[in-house]
Amino acid sequence: LVHRLDRETSGLMLLAKRRSSLTEFHRQLREGQMRKRYIALVWGSWPQDCDRIDAPLHKWVNAKGERWVRVDPEGQAAITKIKVLQRSEHSQLGKACLLECEPITGRTHQLRVHLASQGCAIVGDPKYGDHDLDAKLKPKRMMLHAWQLRCKHPRLEEKLHLRAEPDALWRQLLQFFELETP
Questions:
Q1: From the CA atom positions of the chain, what is the Rg in Å?
Q2: How far is 40 from 146, CA to CA, in rounded Å?
Q3: Is 6 known to be catalytic?
Q4: If DSSP codes are grouped into helix, strand and coil, which group holds residue 62?
Q5: Which of 42, 56, 98, 159 could form a disulfide with 120 if both were Cys (CB 3.0 to 4.6 A apart)?
Q6: What are the φ/ψ torsions at residue 50 (nearest 5 degrees)?
Q7: 147-177 burial by CB neighbour count: b if 16+ within 10 A, else e?
Q8: CB 96 within 8 A of CB 109
């Protein structure tokens, strides 16, 4: 595996066939040459003037061995770029937004915690989500999708633009909120 996704996240994963390719992909990740974009369906209305979250994250493990993360001034630097793709308002569930998220750093649960810290938790997030709204909607999984990845091929050095289209569950929920598939 070149990179990881949280268990609940759908979408694109990059695997290397050779150790030398893996090493090169990891170098691109470390040096910020690999760009990953996600789409997230979130509860609430994303602030118009917020296109970047710069909030340090602190990671810890609880007594049950679960990883948890929170925004904390003593944590590691974490930066996420945000772009609003679409907005919606459901008559019974309230406001929701479809966001494009690009993690500049790669911290554990970064997107999930950053979005929740702004009052816009990801729909269906079992850890950091809005459990009351999720209980009403009953989504089958978290609505975070690894959508696009840009990097260089390790041997040919040509630019790769990879994309994973959202699946049927995504399309169904977007339709429910009267949003279009990006």
A1: 17
A2: 9
A3: yes
A4: coil
A5: 42
A6: -105, 105
A7: bbbebeebeeeeeeeeeeebeeebeebbeeb
A8: no
Q: d(Cα 163, Cα 53) in Å, to the nearest integer?
A: 24
Q: Which amino acid is at 24?
A: E
Nearest to 149 by CA among 141, 137, 135, 159: 159
Q: Answer for the pair 138, 129: CB distance below 8 angstroms, yes or no.
A: no
CA atoms within 13 A on the CB side of 137: 31
Structure tokens at 64: 């049950």
Strand partners, 145: 10, 39
Q: What does the pLDDT profile of the chain (182 residues) look like in tens digits?
A: 998 888 889 999 999 999 999 999 999 998 989 999 999 999 999 998 899 999 999 999 999 999 899 999 999 999 999 999 999 999 999 999 999 999 999 899 999 999 999 999 999 999 999 999 999 999 999 999 999 999 999 989 899 999 999 999 999 999 999 999 98
